[in-house]
Amino acid sequence: MWELLLVIPQKPQQNGLRDEGVRMSAEARRRHILEELTSTGRVRVAKLASALDVADETVRRDLVALEQDGELVRVHGGAVTALGPRTYETQLEERIQQHEQAKLAIAERAYELLPAAGGAVLIDAGSTALALAAVLAKKAATAKFSIVTNSVAAVSIFSERPDLSVYLIGGPVRAITQSVVPFDAASQLDQIRVDVAFLGTNGCSTGHGFSTPGPDEAAIKRAFIASARQRYVLVDETKFGAEFTHRFAGLEEVDGIVTDAAPDQRLLRALREAGTEVLFT
């Protein structure tokens, strides 16, 4: 006679092996979070959850743990570096390859802000400003605009448009940003007046405004702001909440920002209270 043997699988015990697996998974996630934070200066919960294929709440727990370890500071929607005001920079070539689609979208939106009848336009150095230079070179009507810039890379782009008037500010060149940073930025630009200026930034925060790592870059950006009738800062979302050593403008000192994503509510409120328009792609 056959006997039926019913085997009921037992639930796995909550032993150290399972705990170890969870712990290692958390370590891997947190390494990824810190790598992203080192690269961009800011991380967002939703993007991390999508990249790591976990729930938003899992990412939030990771951020809490990393904040307790002093690795980052949590902000609305994500986290920023805990290093405080930063001084480091990356090569222009490297930054051009980061967030390319976001920068192109910002450039396309910024192009819409150019005077319809043409005029004098100032374009700052930087990867997002360089994207705007490329859009302008491609789309601008013949001889419609005069360009003032401190970007060596932008001049190279405009070399394909000999009909445009391009003025490169004189002075020493910083290889890392391919930007001209004259010792007499204020005096050079004191004699120049442009219709609109488009500036890049490394950081944009409630407490520190718009900031950049070097004093020379900050000085020329201040001179740019003083020489323009309208001033817009091109800000991709990775810049929100970041603070670099040298502030070049308060939130209230520019007419608007052009961005690919909304900043957190605190910064958005501060921008609006400052009378600074927030333009989205």
UniProtKB/TrEMBL annotation:
UniProt keywords, alphabetically: DNA-binding, Repressor, Transcription, Transcription regulation
Alphabetical list of InterPro entries matching this protein: Carb_Metab_HTH_regulators, DeoR-like_C, DeoR_HTH, NagB/RpiA_transferase-like, Tscrpt_reg_HTH_DeoR_CS, WH-like_DNA-bd_sf, WH_DNA-bd_sf
Segments traversing the membrane: none
Keyword Repressor on entry: yes
Any one GO MF annotation of this record: DNA-binding transcription factor activity
Ranges where the HTH deoR-type domain occurs: 26-81
Role of this protein: Repressor of the lactose catabolism operon. Galactose-6-phosphate is the inducer.
Protein name: Lactose phosphotransferase system repressor
Organism: Gulosibacter chungangensis
